[in-house]
What does this fold into?
Amino acid sequence: SLPLFLHFYLYRSRTTTTVPSFLLLGPSGAGKTSLLTLLDRGNPTPTHTSQTPSTITCALPPTHRAASARFRSSHDPTSNAPQRFHLTDTPGHGKLRHFSLDALAQLPTALKGLIFVIDSAALAAPSAGAAAGGDVGGVGAAAAVAGGEGRGGGGGGASTSSSLTEAAEYLHDVLLVLQRRHTSAKTSRGPAALPVLIAANKVDLFTALPASLVKVALEREITRVRETRGKGLLDSGVDMGGEGQSEEEERDWLGGGEGDFRLEMMEECDVFVKVVSGCVLGTEGEKEDVEEWWEWIAENM
Ligand code: GDP
It folds into this structure.
């Protein structure tokens, strides 16, 4: 009594052998290797800087259910089998970044999403946290970011943390690759939508910004990065003639339209970005918390 399309769907999902895969990106020190180890072995062991990409196969915990399996009948023998996916770590160090940009350019069809890990405790300007000290430091740091947004994002470059700049530059470049991929797609349907999880890690630390402020800080900094890159283009003498933006300029301008950059602008290219807090490690007796990241993975499998 199942609708015909469901039969087809069930048949297809049983015969498809490609394992869904996710790619881990993000600046060095954000916690990618720790996350990979946690998902692989159940506990994050001390890490050293990774030099080459490594892939692990993980199984979704039984408490989460892959979206693609939610309609499967309980009589289906595959419905209780562990739902596996691949996770590929990439080195975050500046000089090694071409690995991940290469991986992005190739974009295997089984790729279901990108997980961009950032250290949410290192985003606020160092002076704000250090000056306030103690518990107030966290509040001060958060207020510094919120205040910056209120001023409209202009000026104030000196108070930006270098981690924020590094993360924003990297994220800008990644999103630009996705935007170009969408723009240059030949078929009328374009490439499949690609979700991006910004895993705001280290929320266990008291200087960590909540997800909403991480989003604001990244958008503000990407707006700045975008302008700097745009100026670079003009200085290098790329065609400035004609009206408005040239094709070349448009290609290199992240997010269409006027005004400050917003992550929602990426939705026009079928890139859905979500910022979700969590921590791979727990400090002082608190446990790690990656539940919401599992849920995001399950939803996109
Ligand atoms: P990667 O360079 O992105 O692979 O980052 P690593 O996984 O090597 O982590 C960098 C450092 O951050 C290590 O010292 C980790 O122990 C630490 N770290 C990772 N995740 C967390 C977290 O959730 N909370 C805290 N407090 N530290 C973390």
